[in-house]
Amino acid sequence: MELPLTAAVASHLEVLTDAGSTNEILSERARESLTTPPHLSVLLTDNQTAGRGRLGRSWTAAPGASLAVSVLLRRLPSGDARGWIPLAAGVAMADAIAEQLPDHEVAVKWPNDVLVDGRKICGILTQATHDAVVVGTGVNTAMTESQLPVPTATSFAVLGVAADADRLLATYLRGLDELVADLAAAGDAVSSGLHAAASRRCATIGLDVRVSLPGGSVLVGTATALDADGRLLVRAGGAERPISAGDVVHVRPA
Predict the structure, then answer these.
(1) How is 149-162 classified by DSSP, letter by letter?
(2) Which of 79, 122, 135, 165 satisfies CB 3.0 to 4.6 Å to 114 for a cystine?
(3) What structural domains and CATH numbers belong to the chain?
């Protein structure tokens, strides 16, 4: 896989023929050293065999049908601002995908899925290790309709577009690095502009949602906004409740 644009942005780029989990591989390498691999190192494959999604879900795809990309971030914001990194990745990937799908609606489903016309094209999973964060993304590129894992998924191929993987990854990396750097410099997402950018891209805001919360309870209401900490505000029973974790279903599709 030739990726000259991506190689020009990444501090180190490694493309694997196949991998169990790019996140696990890169996280293990980061655990072995506080300096290597360096910030903005990238590990990717188009044949991930043991990927994981949120809440421990498995994530697999046919060889060549999708890209599994993990990015190591070492220049991090401090404190609670780190909780914005998944949303920063979502915004950066949504921007990169939208660049190649200008005739479609590209948005972020809180907290970390990217949707095209309301259907999932990319999932994001972050893992912290020492003083670093690994951001993993799985993007459906050449996946056919019959290969889609669920009816609510989509891909570049299903949309009739041949994804330019090199351009996609280079744009994503630049955007992610800039958003996280601005967040670190400003100290909070409101001052850095990330709060506004994420709010603009967030498909969940304004929709009726069903949230499966940790512990087994379920909250049904209307998503109204993102708060300053990146939590989803859900209005239910006449009051707004901040949600920091949970599985969100759009009751009314985006």
Answers:
(1) SSTTB--TTTTT--
(2) 122
(3) 4-199 (3.30.930.10), 205-250 (2.30.30.100)
